Amino acid sequence: MIDGLWENIFKKTKEENNILEILKGVPMLNNLSNNELREFERIVHRRNYKANEIIFWEGEPGVGMYIIQSGSVKIYNTLPDSGIKELAILKMGDFFGELALLDESPRSASANALEACQILGLYRPDLFDLLERRPKLGFKVMTKLAQIVGNRLRITSSKLQSIYTAGFYRGKNQLKIDSNLTPLLEKIEVKDKNDTLENLT
User: Fold this and answer.
1) Could you tell me if 136 and 99 are in contact, meaning their C-beta atoms sit under 8 angstroms apart?
2) Residue 189 in this model has a pLDDT that exceeds 80
3) Does a structural domain hold residue 90?
4) For the whole model, what pTM was predicted?
5) Between the N and C ends of the chain, which has fewer C-beta atoms within 10 Å?
6) Residue that wins the pLDDT comparison between 186 and 158
7) Which structural domain range is residue 29 located in?
8) Residue 196 within any structural domain of the chain
9) Measuring CA to CA, how many Å separate 188 from each of 51, 109, 166, 200, 201?
10) CA distance 19 to 23
11) Which one, of 96, 105, 103, 98, lies nearest residue 60 by Cα?
12) Torsions phi, psi of 134, nearest 5?
């Protein structure tokens, strides 16, 4: 049996190495040096969640992004007429909620721990403080974040285009939607198929 003091020392070292490896796998951070990654290792918040514990609720203000260190997380919408609509199951190394690094827009979905999870939280005030101290580092990170957001917007635009061509028909002053496609539009107000999309999770 290992003495408690030594056990804590070994555990801390292993955890720190694991956090750096997790951070390297996040697209907005994967072009950073080890020294730059350590800047982020210092500001991430370690959080433990029990099975079925809510990480954040749909509609609450976004404060930052989350990276899964261990466990799995369900992302879902709550629909008024059909209950819960699952959007994604995320596992170790996946991240979610990154748009909250840009502003405090309400979350467009809820996140729930499916099992005991270790989560790394990167919050907007800590990020902005780091970027103010290290502007060159900030430019690299924000450029990658913009690419991620742009890619997700393009994917959503493509899905909406498919909806317009396959799932829509206009009736008496109403826009009727194929029931299988409804969840995708729950949080997006579309006036025209060329509109800019906003308020994505």
Assistant:
1) no
2) no
3) yes
4) 0.70
5) N
6) 158
7) 4-185
8) no
9) 30, 12, 18, 8, 11
10) 6
11) 105
12) -130, 75
